[in-house]
Amino acid sequence: MQCMTTEPVVIDAEFHALIPPLAPNELADLEANLLQDGCLAPLIVWGEQQLLLDGHNRKSICDRYGIDYAVREISLPDRDAAKRWIIKHQLGRRNLTPFQRAELAIELKPIRAKEAEKRVLAGRGDDGSGGRGNRRNPPATWPEGFDPARERETRSQLAKEVGIGARTLSRAEFLAQHADEETKEKLRRGETTIHAEYSRLKQPHVAHNSGDNEWYTPAEYIDAARTVMGGIDLDPASSPAANEIVAAERFFTIEGDGLARDWTGRVFLNPPYSQPQIGRFAEKLVGHAQRDEIPQAVVLVNNATETRWFQSLLGAASAVCFPAGRVRFWHPDKVSAPLQGQAVLYVGAHRESFAREFARFGRVCHVG
User: Fold this and answer.
1) Could you give the strand order of the β-sheet that contains 43-46, starting from the edge strand earlier in sequence?
2) Which helix (H) or strand (E) holds 125?
3) What is the pLDDT of residue 208?
4) Are the CB atoms for 105 and 90 separated by under 8 Å?
5) Is 310 a residue whose pLDDT tops 80?
6) How far apart are the C-alpha atoms of 26 and 30, rounded to whole Å?
7) What is the pTM of this model?
8) Which residues, 6 or more positions from 282, have their beta carbon under 8 angstroms from its beta carbon?
9) pLDDT digits (tens, 9 = 90+) for 88-107
10) Are 64 and 73 contacting, i.e. CB atoms less than 8 angstroms apart?
């Protein structure tokens, strides 16, 4: 169902972030066309709040010059459906680079995972047998949520949906995790290729200061977090090696995709520090906390107080510790050399206990 609306149009930050920006020349051409012909196509909005799904650039230009525009409302069942709608329509743009298409696939991945989980719970597995069919139960050594066959199948389907190869998507996912922002901007503009940057970053003996996510939390911080919370139920950004120290009841790996899973219980989070992953993990934790789905959480991140994601975490926290020195992360095969200081944020009602336990690491401040 579609209808016209006169309600104010609202820009949703999450929806807006799904839209690859126009190149400067494309933006200039759009502005010239709007000034000459007006806004011929309506903006597309969704929901009672009139959240904008399509037409962000047109709205910005029209607002700047006082150009009138029409608005059309569409009916969608939920936010995931709205995000899928946005991604589908962005994929129709012929000017997207392969990396931009891959980034849309990465955004689409958790949506598809939720859809698949709903089908399984409803007894309608993809094989029609009511769940996972004849697949063998995963070995006990696999972390929860990891199934290599399903992972390959999902990547292949996603790659086909966004119009790139499965191997290209796999390499783009690696770059999204490990490349610095300058490299990713070049990839988005088409100034370099996924293959070239993947090959460069996979060369041995090269340091990548902002992209190496495989560093694990020292045991003394884990012990303090466990004491404050009374245990650790979930580590949503982990690995089998890291969980030997964390000893969480459940943990998700890169393959298991913690961003696509529900978080419950007492959470310890040492997220990937590269963008956009750290922002996504921070946003997900804050959302679960605001909905009272996690009673307590301890989060270890860089003390990037100027960033939006840090401010969001700080808004959900009841206390924060700023360690006096840089945290010496560990890895079985590498030597840690942290480039900046860290912060440990606590979400929950036991902030006095947090202050007592974490005071040995550095200054502790109450928040709120």
Assistant:
1) 2-4, 71-74, 43-46, 51-54
2) none
3) 33
4) no
5) yes
6) 6
7) 0.51
8) 271, 299, 301, 309, 310, 312, 313
9) 999 999 889 999 999 999 99
10) no
